[in-house]
Amino acid sequence: MILANDLKPGRTIALDGRVMQVLSAENFQPVGRGGGLVRTKLKDVEGGGVFEKTFRSDEKIETAHVQRRPHQYLYSDGQYYHFMDNESYEQVQLSKEDLGEQHLWLKEGENVTFVSYENKLIGVEVPNTVDRRVVKTDPGVRGDTATGGEKPAVIEGGATVMVPLFISVDDVIRVDTRTGKYVERVGS
Fold it and tell me: How many angstroms separate the CA atoms of 153 and 86, rounded?
């Protein structure tokens, strides 16, 4: 158990029978009231939903001890996605439903992190940013600039990302997997 005052981003807690990851925690003192409060933004690790909750600063919260193990994404056979544990070399297969939106960011040979709680897989974490080749987009038009509009581009893995007009097929771009947004061009 920890005090709400000790909550920090990245920490995992057990709340209402669910495992939550703290995305942000802000201490504040309401005017004219008793003790302080802690405003948090929490992410349901298993369900993926994000919500805000306010705790009293002296409230005790149960910590959730999750295990994180690196796995390498091997391939997809169309029905399942196959991974290998980097420590034991055991292979694991997960369905598209098990992965949720994370399947869009998988690339053969890259590492992901399996998150488990009480020996049950509760999520798969991909890196915050990934570099992917653009496989389909409309051609750029003469006079396009970096500050101009945007157009959709399909990248490796099948995700569609809005990119600046100067991006073309075979360019390599960096994408933020948390938001699905273009960050920068990293090569061509």
Answer: 32
Q: pLDDT under 50 in the chain at which residues?
A: none
Q: For residue 51, give the H/E element and its range.
A: strand 50-56
pLDDT at 80: 94
Count of positions (residues) in the chain:
188
pTM of the model: 0.72
CATH, domain range 129-187: 2.40.50.140
Domains 2-63 and 67-125 share a fold: no
Q: Where are the domains of the chain?
A: 2-63, 67-125, 129-187
Among residues 13, 9, 2, the alpha carbon closest in space to that of 66 is found at 13
Sheet containing 18-28: give its strands across.
2-3, 60-63, 12-15, 18-28, 37-44, 50-56
Cα separation, 39 vs 149, in Å, equals 37
> In CATH, what class is 67-125?
mainly beta
Helix H segments across the chain? 96-99
Q: Which of 132, 134, 121, 126 is nearest to 170 (CA)?
A: 134
The CATH code of domain 2-63 reads 2.30.30.30
Please report the pLDDT score of residue 157 as a whole number: 86
Q: Which residue do the tokens 């750029």 mark?
A: 140
- Contact at 8 Å (CB) between 155 and 171? no
Note the pLDDT of residue 153: 94
